[in-house]
Every structure is written in structure tokens, then in C-alpha cells.
Amino acid sequence: MFKSEAASWFRIYEMFKFESFHMYGIISSALGISIILTQSIKKLKIKSFYGEKLTFNSKTKSFSRYMIGGIIFGLGWALVGVCPGPMFTLVGAGYISIFIVIIASLLGTFLYGLLKESLPH
Description:
Layout: H1 9-16, H2 22-44, H3 63-80, H4 84-92, H5 98-115
Helix pairs in contact: 4-5
């Protein structure tokens, strides 16, 4: 992630300003590979290492829940300049200040867990 510059604040900034295809290319290729692999697992009925059948549960369709969640996620990503995956990459690269972001994201996840039942889904 570090070598591809997916953890670079400047690349993320370019992406949100629609100035570069770099990050969209990384995200698009990951999405495409995921679709191909998921469909292959379903079609070929591939089993886990333990011989168990792999199943994919359908998600509840709801426009507002995904839009609101996506906007909150995107605003946090734009504000901090890093997606959850590369946060740990940046720690490994020596950017110690990213621990503040990791602690805040864990706190936000914990807060969501506490409030989940009272939030609209």
C-alpha cells in the first residue's frame, strides 16, 4: 500500500478533487478482482480450507443507510486523509501521529456499537 501511494495524503487529496485517476484505478481494480473472485467462489462452489461451504448473506437494501454511511465515511476519509486500511501501513512506515487517527476510529466504532440499536437502519 505504501509503494503504490495508496496511503499518501496527496494522492487521496487528488482523488477527492478529481485531479488524478491513480486512486480510482486502485479502487476500481480491487473492486473488479473482488467481483470476479466472489462470482467464481459462488459458481465453482469453492469450499473453505476446513471443507465448509462458503456462503454469502444478502444485505438489506436501503438507499438512505448506505448514502448516509458513505457520506460519513467519505467525510472522515477526506478530513483525515487516510482510509482505514492504510492507517496501519502508515504506522509501519513510521508516521506515529497516525495513532491519533487510529484511536479516534476505534472510539467511533465503539460509539457506533453502543448506539447501534437506537440508530435508523
